[in-house]
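In response to the reviewer comment on reproducibility (Comment 2.3), we provide here a single inverse folding case reported in full, input and output, so that an independent group could reproduce the run without further information from us. The structure tokens appear first.
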């Protein structure tokens, strides 16, 4: 089947067309993502009202471009998929309304998809990974371990109890005067830094579960920074590098140790083709990827990190999730509602 997907739950407006036959794997015929970074830059974060308006303006255009790039028309599409939550409600509503309009006008079935399910199923789309697999979803807004049993059964093993790691990277970058987005800036600065100069806490590492916490770490960086500023009157490039390296090393330590625990729970299910998968913008971080690879090697599991364009927010993952779910459930109807919260 050929599915047109829409995504508008945060600050990317996206449309994509995916072809799926059966089982694992799909072909992305087109994927269009229009970011809104410029619109929110002056405000230091995503402004929900501005985001919703921009989605409403850009969705039609994204759909047109996705069809054009795939050299298809709406008549060739078998189903319409849309992120129905969780996310910023105005944006999710824009997408749901657009998808309902397309479904009503064309008579094609409509599927509301959970955004997190979209991320979690991406390794099926790109790498034909077999169920069950372990997924670490790690981005600016999410951080959780999911045991993926099927296209509609996800078991949450744990996750952050406060900030997501990407959010912590962004906030720490601001604290030490590095540019946004903070993740790449910190990774770059950390190359020349001494990760051992500042002793930073590794929260919740003493607890045996898979939960994590990153907000205390951010506060610890703030204190370390203030101490340096009080002593020297400002931060040198080396101070920035050392703080960046210390912070990044701590996030890696916490993520890796908790992944080890999640992996132990997963391996107890005796999967026939064990795989550790990662998705989300933070998966771009080389140190984090290496750490995760180490854990998968320890367990002789495959390590799967989909290409970054499919790891970050996109609509191909939404179209693919709907395609796989279509054999497990009925389509939604025009009463489909947008959900700001929607646990998997
Ligand atoms: O998945 P994503 O594109 O968007 C949402 O979270 O919605 O993730 C963006 C996050 C940002 O917080 C950014 O700082 C972080 O991913 N990020 C990184 C790196 N590249 C992006 N974090 C650490 N290291 C990186 N290289
Ligand atoms: Zn996302």
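Designed residues, in position order:
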């Amino acid at each position: 089947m050929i599915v047109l997907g829409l995504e508008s739950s945060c600050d990317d407006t996206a449309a994509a067309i995916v072809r799926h036959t059966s089982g694992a794997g799909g072909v992305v015929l087109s994927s269009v993502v229009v970011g809104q970074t410029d619109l929110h830059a002056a405000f230091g974060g995503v402004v929900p009202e501005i985001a919703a308006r921009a989605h409403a303006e850009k969705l039609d255009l994204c759909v047109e471009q996705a069809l054009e790039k795939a050299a298809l028309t709406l008549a060739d599409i078998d189903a319409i998929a849309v992120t129905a939550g969780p996310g910023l409600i105005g944006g999710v509503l824009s997408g749901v309304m657009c998808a309902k309009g397309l479904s009503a006008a064309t008579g094609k079935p409509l599927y509301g998809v959970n955004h997190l399910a979209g991320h979690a199923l991406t390794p099926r789309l790109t790498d034909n990974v077999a169920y069950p697999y372990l997924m670490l979803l790690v981005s600016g807004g999410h951080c959780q371990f999911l045991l993926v049993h099927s296209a509609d059964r996800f078991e949450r093993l744990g996750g952050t109890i406060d900030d997501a790691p990407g959010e912590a990277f962004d906030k720490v970058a601001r604290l030490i005067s590095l540019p946004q987005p903070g993740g790449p800036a910190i990774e770059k600065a950390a190359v020349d830094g001494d990760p051992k100069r500042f002793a930073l806490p590794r929260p919740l590492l003493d607890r045996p579960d898979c939960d994590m916490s990153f907000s205390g770490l951010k506060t610890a960086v703030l204190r370390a920074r203030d101490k340096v500023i009080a002593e020297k009157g400002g931060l040198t490039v080396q101070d920035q590098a050392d703080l960046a390296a210390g912070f990044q090393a701590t996030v890696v330590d916490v993520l890796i140790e908790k992944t080890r625990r999640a992996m132990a729970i997963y391996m107890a299910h005796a999967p026939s083709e064990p795989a550790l998968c990662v998705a989300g913008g933070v998966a771009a971080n080389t140190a984090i990827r290496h750490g995760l690879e180490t854990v998968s090697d320890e367990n002789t599991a495959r390590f799967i990190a989909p290409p970054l364009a499919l790891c970050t927010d996109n609509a191909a993952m939404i179209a693919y999730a709907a395609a796989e779910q279509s054999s497990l459930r009925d389509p939604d109807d025009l009463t489909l509602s947008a959900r700001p919260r929607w646990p998997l």
